[in-house]
Amino acid sequence: MSFQTGHIGLNVTDLDRSREFYERVFGFAVAGESREEGRRYAFLAQDGTLVLTLWQQSESRFAAGLPGLHHLSFQVPDLDAVRRAETVIRDLGAKIHHDGVVPHGEGASSGGVFFEDPDGIRLEIFAPDAAGDRPAPTAGAPTCGFF
C-alpha cells in the first residue's frame, strides 16, 4: 500500500483574507467555495488538482504551542521561485522568520523562506538548491523545526 498527501485542510478566522493570501502567495485558484453563513469554505487548486481547503471555523490565531500542525512546506523548482514568493510575502506584510531565505541546516543545499499566514499558521516555501552559501539560523538543528 502506498500513501501520498491528498489535500490539506486549514481552519481560518477570515475566509476572504486567507483565500486572497493563498491565491497571491501560491497562485492557487478557487475550485469551489461556499458563502453560506456558518458553512464558509474554499477549495484551492493548482493545475486542476485540489491542494488546500480553507474552513472559516476559527475564533483566534493558530496556537503553535498546542499539539497538532507544526508547519506546511511547499517545494518549488529553484531559488528564483523562492525569491519570487518571498517578494509577494513581503508585499503582503506577512511575518517572515529568519529574515528571508535560509538553508534547512548548516551545509545543506536546500533552503527556503519561513513565514506565517494571516492566522499565524507556519509555512515554508523551499527549493533543493536555495541555500547557497548562507549560514543556517540554528546550529545543530533543522531550520524548519524551530521557527
Automatic annotation (TrEMBL):
GO molecular-function terms, A-Z: lactoylglutathione lyase activity; metal ion binding
InterPro entries: Fosfomycin_Res_Enzymes, Glyas_Bleomycin-R_OHBP_Dase, Glyas_Fos-R_dOase_dom, Glyoxalase_1_CS, VOC_core
Keyword flag Metal-binding: yes
Transmembrane segments annotated in the record for this chain: none
Keywords assigned by UniProt, alphabetized: Metal-binding
Coiled-coil stretches noted in the UniProt entry, renumbered to this chain: none
Species in which this protein is naturally found: Nonomuraea aridisoli
Domain VOC positions: 4-128
Protein known as: Glyoxalase
